[in-house]
Amino acid sequence: MIFKKSLSLALLLLTCQMALFAQNARFSQIGTASQQLNPSLTGRFDGKARMSNLFGWYTSDNPKNGYAETQHQNIAFDIKFGKYRTSGDDAASNGTAATNKNGAKDETPKGKKQNGYWGLGVNYYHYGASKSPIEASFISLSVARHFYNKSNKFYGFGIQVTNASGNLDRTKGTQYDREISGGGFPNRPEIMKNDSSLTGKQTYTDFNIGAYYGMNTEPIMFEIGVSLSHLFYPVFDLYNDNDHPKLRHRVSSYSNLRLKLNSKWGLVQKNVYWREGLYYRSKSDHSTDTTEWDAPLESFWAGVEFFKINPKSNINLNFGFNTRSFRTLMPYLNLNIGKYIDLRYSYEMPINSRNFRAYSAKRNEIGLVLSYGRNTSRGTNFYKKVNFW
Predict the structure, then answer these.
(1) What is 4-57 written as a DSSP string?
(2) Which of 38, 121, 276, 300 has the maximal Cβ count within 10 Å?
């Protein structure tokens, strides 16, 4: 009965278009670059410290833009400071899990109450290709504060500052597709097509904020988060055209649901829906005064991942399936090696690129996550866990 109810709830969430805003999540493996998704997720993992490396190579071929390819590289490191809970998937701060006389979870002796902890992270992101006219790099520093409201509730907020550096070199070629670009320095086709020798450089400082809230019981864990990017409309003038174009807001939102299936398998279901190109205090998307490069961009990302419960082996393979606006399919594999290594691979392919030409992109991604001080392997004590990033 629990299995049927949990599976029905997951399918319902997977097929619903949530009225939520979220970041321009260009990666297939959104969770492997969690600091990009929401700065409040800095420190939201099992263990003391974590480093992740995500590499993707994308191609697209559609009648409008022709053939294009680009590579994406994201390297992140985050670490926890302070006392954090000793049960579930959080590493023990004193070596043992603390309980009261009634056996309540996540409670510590009087005078040693654990109300939360800090997370500090740094993220490096780069995209570009040999024949693409635009490449860019982003270095971000994030700080997050995580709280425990009650024994089964948690919430937090984070801030992030980013230094962005973009480079334009039209002589390299014209292979550009907005769908596979990394963003931050959009293409301006009305200028690019008229000047085959156009070059330019630009740097700017960007600010992002975010927050999340969640609760956890054995049958279900639920978490939601929201963030706002491009807080002060940074200028990205690569073209020296005196227009001083600005990046509009991105409002980010996600949901994360862990369900109890049975004693052998558990399920995690995630949704992300994003839209960018928003004005502050705007009641419309200003579609009448946008050009192609800054027209609002939106899409829906959803996925399910199945975890083996309490695996007997230190080497454990989990799997999942994701989709982008139900127009692509992304098979996903996650190889867990003990408490220390996660190796992830995904391949995103269009389902029907003839009818959905904006979704002609093909994405290969491989991710490596190294953990220090993790309390348990991925599937162990699965129904007590709260961190699935």
Answers:
(1) HHHHHHHHHHHHS--S--------S-GGGGHHHH-GGGTT-SSSSEEEEEEEEE
(2) 38
